[in-house]
Protein 1
Amino acid sequence: MQAIGWRWTPPTLDPAWAGLIAAHPQARPARISEQHRSGYLVAETVDASHRAESLPEWQRAGSYRKGEVTPESRPAVGDWVLVEGEAPNALRIVALLPRFSAIKRGAAGEHYKQQVIAANIDTVFVVCGLDADFNPRRIERYLLLVGGSGVQPVIVLTKSDKDGADVEAALHELRALDVPVLAVNAKDRASVAALEPWLGDGQSIVLVGSSGAGKSTLTNTLLGIDRMKTGAVREGDDRGRHTTTHRALIALPSGACLIDTPGMRELKPTGEEVVAESFADIEALAAQCRFNDCRHQKEPGCAVRAAIERGEVDAQRVANFLKLSDEVAGAANKLATRLAQQADAKVQNKAMYKRIDEKYGRH
Ligand SMILES: Nc1nc2c(ncn2[C@@H]2O[C@H](COP(=O)(O)OP(=O)(O)OP(=O)(O)O)[C@@H](O)[C@H]2O)c(=O)[nH]1
Ligand SMILES: [Zn+2]
């Protein structure tokens, strides 16, 4: 169990967990390893995941009368649940245990949705190569999206061994960030040992970063092997046959558990991000602008532009701050619209049921 991230013994058990466990005396804890349209896979050990039947309310679109089952209240990869019955055919999820962290993403489609893409994660390694892949703006974006999730971000700059890798210049470019930054050769075990503080017993970690950044290389080195089978999770693979070589929960020799979920590849703001927290340096300057709605473009008395001119803050970081602020504001608008529609539907349903009750008596 510890190999899949379990680290709770009765004295450290959250009272909410203890309550749920007491309410299901036949059940035992397990961890969601994969989420598919057709259902969940859960793991009780690191070697195997099995399909588990979930609660009917997590499968339905949600009944408006009982209150909608929000996407956030359904299990996601990394969640601890209580299961009953035996694998492989009779496993059932009976409860979702409250999570201590959740990385969410906004999924803008026809309807605004929020999804939890990884739960109960301790640390996210933001992986970026010290080559053409090096992009402080992308790192800022990841930090914004992870901010507020309860997960500790750590920036891992790979390819420090390569010709032309300028660690000093990269650290200088990232100086405004208030998170640990490490430069490593992802192929070298001694170098990767710098990540040990975040890889202790029962720790859960995820890796994010663009293609080619070195995530698989890092994973293999942490595992102490040369190569990893990175077969993608098969899509459209319905009932039963989940024979992927892909492992969603990877136990590391250090005692930590690495969670690999495709959801981490594409992160969009949910609208709840607090841009000011990820860009505290710019926010502090903006507080000194003459106009409190200053966009830091051509306004007189702009403290942010003055700081750019003095070379104290990076113009591109400011540009990214504005771009991400707009993106978050756009998502926040969609979120507000959705919440208003929900509230509206609730009022209308109430009125409708009242009319039915009046006409036909209590139903
Ligand atoms: N020299 C050197 N090469 C590295 C390092 N990290 C990654 N590479 C090389 O960079 C290439 C891409 O690395 P991967 O580990 O496959 O990148 P990834 O992030 O897993 O990419 P995707 O699987 O596409 O998401 C490979 O050829 C690695 O050998 C490093 O620290 N030093
Ligand atoms: Zn300004």
Protein 2
Amino acid sequence: MAQQKIIWTRIDEAPALASYSFLPIVEAFTRGTGIDVETSDISLAGRILAQFPDRLGDDQRIPDKLAELGELTQHADAAIIKLPNISASVPQLKAAIKELQEKGYDIPDYPEKPANPEEEEIQARYARVLGSAVNPVLREGNSDRRAPLSVKAFAKKNPHRLGEWTSDNKARVASMEGGDFYGNEKSVVARADSTLTITFRGEDGSEKVLKDGLGVLEGEIVDGTVMDVSALQSFYRDQIEAAKSEDLLLSLHLKATMMKVSDPVMFGHGVKVFFSDVFDEFGDDLEAVGVNPNLGLGDLYSKIEKLDADKKARIEDAITKQYESRPRLAMVDSDKGITNLHAPNDVIIDASMPVVIRDSGQMWNADGNLQQTLAMVPDRSYGPMYEAVFEDCKKNGALDPATMGSVPNVGLMAQKAEEYGSHPTTFVMDADGTVTVTDQDGAKLYDHEVHQGDIWRMSRVRDIPVRNWVELAVTRAKATGAPAVFFLDELRAHDANVIEKVKAYLPEAGGDEIEYVIKSPVDAITYCLERCRRGEDSISVTGNVLRDYLTDLFPILELGTSAKMLSVVPLLNGGGLFETGAGGSAPKHVQQFLKENYLRWDSLGEFSALGACFEHIAQTTDNAKAKVLGETLDSAIGRFLDDNKSPARKLGQIDNRGSHYYLALYWAQALAAQDDDADLKKRFEPVAAQLTENEQKINDELIAAQGKPVDLDGYYRPDEEKAAAAMRPSATLNGIIDAMR
Ligand SMILES: NC(=O)C1=CN([C@@H]2O[C@H](COP(=O)(O)OP(=O)(O)OC[C@H]3O[C@@H](n4cnc5c(N)ncnc54)[C@H](OP(=O)(O)O)[C@@H]3O)[C@@H](O)[C@H]2O)C=CC1
Ligand SMILES: O=C(O)CCC(=O)C(=O)O
Ligand SMILES: [Mg+2]
């Protein structure tokens, strides 16, 4: 029997800490089963170092693991467990660089405004690390995210609290009325393989090729669109006025980490419009010290340190005055005075909007109180869908997690589909003119008139991913009996082309055997919510952006968190990518851990991903032990949920580490109790006995560690030994696990 490898990714922040405790358990349990668990470092720090082999010593250099994993996804035997990693904004990237430099790695500073070819080259290397740089490389398949049945049943039995909604709630979502990506989109389906060129022609007749050599395949949908920034600015101005007159808290919701080229610029316009008096009066000074509004108010504060004390004080005064003339601004951390406009990475719409809905349309204000918000989601491709949820809640009240149906998602994601793959073809315009897309014969696909500062972008999706996505939707609808709800808007150019493909591929995929509807995102979500309220499930079948948004929205409403989701990516070439949960890397959890040695991270996503991975290995290889490992893990997870052994939220109770102990206990007991594999039974009988006997002692040791600060000697690249020691404080548990390894 060939050894099967599971790759376990090493990443950042809370889930990385959790791995120090959970991974030794996984290694111990799989030993001797024909399955090897190997780690692969794709953390932000690891990816930065991999860009600079030429500047690092032999003992410092690390290989480009992300490239290796990208290559692996093309093979049928790929089995990758992908934990959430940081998609770095520029401020996060700079912080990570600083930490690595302090640790003795001779890497260059990030050049914000490259001044020469050498700096341009450095910036290009860092660009490979910036933003959502990992997921698009590994996601060589479409997405199947859902709450495992046991998790949904647990949530119904133990419903979390959702804030009330009444019809007089004034919270609302505002989107632009025109000039946005939605309104300007043009879309064509390639009739043959070709190579495209994107050209800018200035009004003065000058020409610049923005990108050439863009290979497209027959059947590929190729979109071009533009965000008119003067329309965006006036949208911001209007909403600032509206929030003020309606006495609402103002908030902005974008995805600056993932949409790393367009959204930081849109965020920056928000900063500039909100603080327009400051930028009008002190524009030259701010420019002189390199303030970049796209990096937020936090960057402004750090850069004005370079000005003389008097100037700095005047700018700070102007900011204070500006707050007085503006509506109140939503806060990310009201205790620390961190606003919604401080850092682009704190504005992450998939996580922020569900919390607004959970909290009755409210966000935190500067006094530390919840207040109803005017949520700005500029682009109409997405904003109106959230507004429909607000409307539904105002009309029908909050949803009820004890009874509501489930909305899993099938998302079109493979091969860098749609907007999320558009970073290399997104451009901020230097001047007024026209952007034209032509094919290899010089024939024009479409053009757009643009103005200086506008954001033009091309997004694409190939035919094979669309076909596979339709098949996956049918598979899930057949498996569950729930209808497939295609979120597609015939008024949007891109969606209209996708609708044609869906209609063409559904019959051959077995569409006549399932119930399905095709509706605009607004109508589709309203339809799903109606069904939810009747306790009925619906499968949302969406493009890549709505995949991201809905796989946080419904889990947070249904389960209280997206951490408990099963997130499978069947790779187009037969392998499996198993993502853990649907949320991020929870920086807040690390802060709490450092302060009081308590890690709230819930590893249920890791448990479910591992279970799905064993199941995949059992189905695709002749390894019978994988099947036993998978089945026993599944029953252990069921027991774990029944006994409610997820981390609590407060000190003195079991945290992430305690939850790992209980999973190991139940898993060992299930392995000892099964009769399908005598070897495993024999191996796990004594282990189960030891873990059972020592329950009190292990709990005592784990809880005794809590309550004092922890030093990990680093945030982006913590000291391995310190982190492992901090995450494995029970000598008794370590003794049992290490004896098995
Ligand atoms: N797949 C990936 O690689 C992803 C990466 N990211 C990255 O993660 C970072 C942080 O993003 P952010 O949007 O703030 O999202 P996070 O999910 O990290 O934080 C939002 C909140 O989600 C809850 N949460 C998420 N996962 C868990 C878990 N396993 N256990 C318990 N609670 C959980 C917590 O909420 P509460 O306090 O309400 O319980 C948490 O504070 C960014 O760098 C972002 O780019 C984001 C999404 C996916
Ligand atoms: O890639 C990223 O930056 C975030 C991914 C994400 O939020 C998701 O897939 O749900
Ligand atoms: Mg997401």
